[in-house]
Amino acid sequence: MIPYLARLLDITTTSGTLSGDWKKATMIPIHKGGDRSLVTNYRPVSLTSVVCKQMEHIIASYLRQVWDKNDWLYEGQHGFRPGYSCGSQVTTKSERTCGGMGGNKKTHTLIREARSCKYLGIILRSDLSWADQVNYTVKKAWKALHFTMRILKKGNGNTKSLAYMSLVRPILEYGAACWDPYREGQGAKEFCTSYEQFELGNFGVA
User: Of 38, 49, 78, 206, which alpha carbon lies 20 to 30 A from 68's?
Assistant: First the structure.
């Protein structure tokens, strides 16, 4: 199977053309929230050819190697790069903001104009406190947990544990590297662990 796919991809790249089937996509509407009767509350997702996606990954991997080798990418580019993520982007942004608060008058003025703002899903406050972000994270995780509990009320322990690790735990971990430690003596890891112990006990997983 692999030799045939390799030959197909070679012909495609050499000729510079794509198969007509590869250009077709099945559109699936994903509900983002709010009134389900409004089209604007849906996000379209395209399901395309798996073979075409594999070719895209191969080309992207090659281009990434060339970019990294020649140092063509801007250091602030965190998306779609191995070892980088939204968390690393927000951490870098926070560090630069904190540094600018000391001597950069322009940065200090911009920070004071807004009490808080959301950047890549992380709430940044003008006083550099993470209280709003932590409270938002707990509230969001709580909603996800109770939704999961209702769906898997009669599920076994393994199913509940898998659902928790897939749907709730990522909410607690996202961006945790930015606000760790939130309080003196209580880092992000300890915060998530204590929250898990309490919630898993109610969920019937512990």
Answer: 49
On whether the CB atoms of residues 205 and 158 are closer than 8 A, the answer is: no
Of residues 146, 138, 177, 179, the one with CA closest to residue 164: 146
DSSP 176: H
**Residue with token string 């990418």:** 73
Mean pLDDT of 171-194: 63
Query: Which of 7-11, 77-81, 90-94, 176-180 shows the highest mean pLDDT?
Result: 7-11
Residues 101, 148 within the same domain: no
Note whether 43 and 92 are same-domain residues: no
The values of phi and psi at residue 30, to 5°, are -110, 125
Domain count, the chain: 3
**Whole-number pLDDT of residue 169:** 86
Residue 119 β-bridge partners? 122
d(CA 199, CA 98): 34
Compute the chain's Rg from CA coordinates.
23
Q: So what's the pLDDT on residue 42?
A: 92
Q: Which helix (H) or strand (E) holds 108?
A: helix 105-113
pTM attached to this predicted model: 0.51
**DSSP of 112-124:** HH-SEEEETTEEE
User: Which residues, including other chains, have CB under 8 Å from residue 131's CB and lie 6 or more apart?
Assistant: 125, 182
| CA angle 181–82–133, rounded 5-degree value | 30
Pull the structure tokens for residue 53. 């996606």
| Residue 153 structure tokens | 């009320």
Domain range for 82 is 76-129
